[in-house]
Design a protein that fits this description.
- The protein is mostly beta strands.
- Helices cover 2% and strands 50% of the residues.
- Strands 1-2-3-4-5-6-7-8 form an eight-stranded antiparallel beta barrel. An eight-stranded antiparallel barrel has the order 9-10-11-12-13-14-15-16.
- The longest helix has 6 residues.
- The two termini are 21 Å apart.
Length: 242
């Protein structure tokens, strides 16, 4: 459950990018500093931050990468800030690439596996403005309030219709998943398919309406059941751009 931004900087040769990374537990300012490459797969950057004592420390490494399917550049980062190692990618929107703005958005790296839905409770409510939804999802181990915000990066049919966001301790929005509007092949009813990165792993659920809810603004979140009706594959869950 991570989010953030990176901005390319030319103010000094010792720092290539500056940014922030957020989770539900921390908000940390980071820098990417170029480092000598020992081999082709050696990291391109050290990721550094300042600890509570004011000392600059290395918290990870980063690589310049290129998307296999899109050819778009992105930055792959592996970090550890004291809660265990994690990986994220820094990607650019189509607008950022076209304008050469040097602005990147940090998104979670999608895991290869998806946790089983199990016993899940939740609700989703359409808001009156901004084509957004508010909701919660919970089980005995976690309880998350979240928002569904329209995905401004959507350029292809398979891209998510919404990004799922929670807040960091400072109130910074953190993207923790994606959601797609869908229609049941069997009943013709609309529903929302969600892929959420929870503390227990990536979770797939559906938000559906029963007979009493249909026509209203409220959806009930239920465990995902694979009936062949999903619009997306699990592996594209957190993709911002193709």
């Amino acid at each position: 459950m991570f989010a953030g931004t990176l901005t390319k900087t030319t103010e000094t040769e010792t720092v290539a990018f500056i940014g922030m990374i957020h989770s539900t537990k921390f908000d940390i300012a980071i820098q990417l500093e170029p480092r000598p490459k020992m081999s082709e797969r050696s990291p391109d950057y050290d990721v550094t931050a300042v600890n509570k004592s004011g000392r600059k420390v290395r918290i990870g490494t980063a690589w310049n990468e290129t998307g296999n399917t899109t050819g778009n550049p992105y930055i792959s980062m592996q970090m550890d800030v004291g809660i265990g190692p994690f990986r994220v990618n820094a990607v650019q929107s189509q607008e950022a690439r076209q304008s050469n703005s040097g602005e990147f958005e940090i998104i979670p790296l999608v895991s290869n596996g998806t946790m089983k839905s199990g016993s899940i409770s939740g609700e989703l409510t359409a808001m009156d403005a901004d084509n957004a939804f508010a909701g919660y999802i919970a089980n005995m181990m976690f309880d998350l309030d979240f928002m569904l915000i329209e995905n401004g990066y959507k350029t292809e049919e398979t891209h998510a219709d919404y990004r799922i966001e929670v807040s960091s301790p400072r109130g910074t929005p953190i993207r923790v998943g994606s959601a797609w509007m869908a229609k049941s092949n069997r009943t013709g009813n609309d529903y929302v398919s969600l892929l959420i990165n929870t503390p227990d792993g990536d979770l797939r659920v559906n938000a559906v309406q029963n007979d009493e809810q249909r026509g209203g603004n409220t959806f009930s979140i239920i465990p995902f059941i694979d009936g062949g009706e999903q619009q997306q594959e699990a592996g594209v869950g957190l993709s911002l751009v193709a």
